[in-house]
Design brief:
Blueprint: E1 5-8, H1 18-27, E2 32-38, H2 50-58, E3 63-69, H3 77-83, E4 87-90, H4 98-107, E5 111-116, E6 134-138, H5 154-166, E7 172-176, H6 184-190, E8 194-197, H7 199-203, H8 209-217
Parallel strand pairs: 1-8, 2-3, 3-4, 4-5, 5-6, 6-7, 7-8
Helix pairs in contact: 2-3
Bound molecules: D-xylitol-5-phosphate and zinc ion (ZN).
Length: 219
């Protein structure tokens, strides 16, 4: 079984202190940092873009797990690669040609992530599975932190894990949206090995992020 890794979403961090917040997460045992990029078009919310990511990455050595909720995404891949994204995750609905967007991410030697919305079926990515490093399963409709986990995605994780084992594939399965201390165990049991969390890490236990990261890793 793959090691469980925690990717805190800085969407719930104090945006006036982003550099310090990332440092704090690194010290608290985060394995990577989940950066939610939203364009107010693909999703109904706006966040940050390449210049902010570049500035943050300059002062940090942790892996940047960049979740692009922007459309059309293809022409922006290079800017995010240049800014220092280590994993670039895109949604199939946000590109006209998924195959060429995957190739473009690879061209910049970045890890390829593909994200599936709650209603998006695994079929969309079946033929690309051997080229994908990470599959991000959305357990909320993307756009906002603090939403409620959708348990119906558990079957999708199980199906994906089964396909992975049957075909001897090695991608990571990441889960994003509404993860808390009551549901993290079932997503791990279903097959997820990277846990994204914003609200639970930043707001639970009076914002004790070290404790919250430890709790999400505990058996
Ligand atoms: C939602 C984002 C998530 C979000 C998770 O569109 O992709 O990464 O920040 O936040 P919580 O853990 O609060 O659901
Ligand atoms: Zn995300």
């Amino acid at each position: 079984m793959k090691k469980i890794q925690i990717s805190p979403s800085i969407l719930s961090a104090d945006f006036s202190q982003l550099g310090n917040e990332i440092k704090r997460l690194e010290d608290a045992g985060a394995d990577m940092i989940h950066v939610d990029v939203m364009d107010g078009h693909f999703v109904p919310n706006l966040t940050i873009g390449p210049p902010v990511i570049k500035a943050l990455k300059k002062n940090s050595s942790i892996i940047f797990d960049v979740h692009l909720m922007i459309s059309p995404v293809h022409k922006y891949i290079e800017s995010f690669a240049d800014a220092g994204a280590d994993i670039i995750t895109i949604h199939p609905e946000a590109t006209e040609d998924l195959a060429s967007s995957i190739l473009k991410i690879k061209k910049f030697k970045k890890k390829v992530g593909i994200s599936l919305n709650p209603e998006t079926k695994i079929d969309v990515i079946l033929k690309f599975l051997d080229q994908i490093d990470l599959i991000l399963i959305m357990s909320v409709n993307p756009g906002f932190g603090g939403q409620k986990f959708m348990p119906e995605v558990l079957n999708k994780i199980k199906d994906l894990k089964k396909i992975q084992l049957e075909n001897n594939l090695d991608f990571d399965i990441e889960i994003d949206g509404g993860i808390n201390f009551d549901n993290y165990k079932e997503v791990i049991e279903a097959g997820a090995n990277i846990i994204v969390s914003g609200t639970t890490i930043f707001k639970s236990n009076n914002g004790d992020i070290k404790k919250n990261i430890e709790l999400l890793k505990s058996k």
